Give the backbone structure.
Amino acid sequence: MKTYFYILISLATTAGFAQIKGTVTDEKGSPLPFVTIFEDDTYNGTTSNEQGKYELNLKTDGKSAVVFQYLGFKTQKVSVQPKKQPYSLDVKMVEESFSLNEVVINTKINPAIAIIKKAIASKKENTEKTARFKADFYSRGIFKLKNAPKKIFGQKIGDMNGSLDSTGTGIISLSETFSKIIFEKPNNLKEIVTASKVSGNNNGYSYNTARSSFYDFYDNTVNFGINMISPLADNAFNYYKFNLEGTFNDENNQMINKIKVIAKRDKEPVFEGYIYIVEDSWAIYAVDLDIKGYRMKEEFVDVMTLKQNFSYSKTNRLWAKNTQSLDITAGAFGIKFFGKYTYVYSDYEFVNSFSKKTFTNEITAIEIDSNKKDTLFWNANRPIPLTLEEKDDYTRKDSIYKVRNSEKYLDSIDKKGNKFKILKIINGYTYRNSSKKQSFSYDGLLNLGSLSFNTVQGYNLDSGFSFTDWNTEKKGKYTSVKTKFNYGFSEDRLRVTGQFTHRFNNQNYATLTASGGSTVKQFNENQPISKTINTISSLFFKDNYMKLYNLEFAQLNYGQDIANGINLNGKIEFQQRKPLFNTTDFSYFNKEDLYTSNNPLAPNDFVSPGFEEHHLMKASLNAKINFGNKYSTRPDGKFNIRNRKYPTLFVAYEKAFAASEKKYEFDHVSSRLTYEATIANKGNFALNLKAGKFFNAKNIAFMDYKHFNGNQTHIGQSNRYLNVFNLLPYYSNSTNDSYFEAHMEHNDQGYIMNKIPLLNKLKSTLVLGAHSLAIPNSKPYSEFTIGLDNLGFGKFKMFRVDYVRSYQNGYQGDGIIFGLKFLDILE
């Protein structure tokens, strides 16, 4: 009975439609992929798959005309009147014979320039015609891996849930979606995902949504991580040369100009390939352009190829995009990635305007049962037939999914993986119960970053245990319990901390955290110097920058989203603080020299503590506000999407009370504003402003001061320096009064560097920065920086070099900062 019910549903979805299917080949019989096929004078279309197979559901009863359009081949219009279903129609396409007018023979005249100028002049008119529409949208994404090794950095990658064969080759991702979209330029979008399918996950939701598919060459720039210059940009002739390679007439006898797009400078963010322009209307007919990875500062990407095809409706005289594909080739270490995203737009409805309530902060909504559509639905509605490889992947992975998610299989895998070996004591161990979605882990003794050195503890070792209980079927509920052990060999002391975390859901992300124990803390809780850098500075250069105190604490924290774009977090904590002293003078070099003391206020005083032992209570309330916040809703959660047009604001209030002595109590209000903006193709600007004020804080403990992130090591560890002064001593400007801090950085993303001979071969970017700090009773501190980012070897661009000049009551000094961005991994 259930089978008959599904058949009735399938018939209902195709009722009233005549289905045509077949294969498109060239004259030699070779299949042609990505051929655009559409019903004449409509926006109902599809495209052929990699094997030249296509399927098209006609929307017109009786006799129809089907158009076959493929770049480099003559467009064909075939009349059909299907009498049986499905109707088979194979088409053999003939290569286009391009012609050039006699004026082209004149070498002093480049007719492509005139065509592109007219296309640029007509952009506003052409884009306005299709600026607001409703449409049906289909997407398919596939990602393949070739020659994957057995291990990466010592970790086995396995077969990736059945994706890879014995040679490390196979499809690692395959998914599809159907959506209803409403769009208004430049970026208003409302999308309802009605069907979603993920290979190897019966309950999965695809991320292939329309939001990531809008590439509009009528705009001056097209975003691919950085803004690429459109061949139809107002300033296109500064970046491109153009050649008219020929003309041909389409099925409506409209003349199409085939224009080759040539980059003037190789390292610029430019495209290469072909753009096809319609004579007289100067609209885009098609796009076939390559994007090289190094041009968009994505070194691991070799090349991406974007193809777009537009169809014409004689009824409303509009050219509208009906198909689009994006092919990706990437790789490193001999591993190759191949990706392809295919999009079909159909059933356009163009409107003059939308009501004000049409677009909200919800960009995408995925219907609850969208991932429950069966094979009959997909076979009846999928506009592009699956290739044999894709069919096999769905069949095989669906079977693997059922087997590998069965309790019997999970138990057998856990039994094998849970075997304890003696080396696990050193490397760490995890016990997993996959059926119950629980795991227990031991961190081991010699994991990355677990061993470090400081003058208080000497060599010290971190390890710990954790228990996790997760269940993705229950709205993102998550529970974890962690404990961390730290032992300092020189002081011969063990410290232990514990933490309990429970996330109630991933709709408003309500999260409760309880923690406590004994630990060592830097006076600046932002930890301006990392364990790795401090270890190197101490053992090799006899520098002691990390200043520590002993903290025993108990803390309770709760946070959640209380409204769209607003997250509120509250915390209450008891703290017992004790001073610490150096216990070792060990170093590999400079053995005769002494370390500075552990007192940040008196680095040469080895007797006096930095503060008196005391305790207090702290309570704080913090709010994060993303203005104009957008979001996507799925049955398994809500996902925030920050609106980059607006800044993010942080406001906080902190109160210390119930201290062992009244002088340690205080009130502190603070705020922070961050903002990022992409300035056309001229780079990215980023801003971080901080301000705050203490009240009743004249004699508070030094660790409660506002400390500013300095850097005395000449090593940078972050991608951007928006939260650090690179020549400022760590505790030289700490304050218990008011303060204002500003950081600004502009990365040209190659806008200037790409134009400088020889230097452009580095494929680097120019970074300009300004940093300022103001506190009472002191002259403002300022730094100005100029540097090169995206430096490295081959595909590995993990370095940055900056020249920094500092001022405070006049010139203070200068220096070179070497940015090692990969050090983030070690912390």
Notes: The first strand starts at residue 18 and ends at 25.
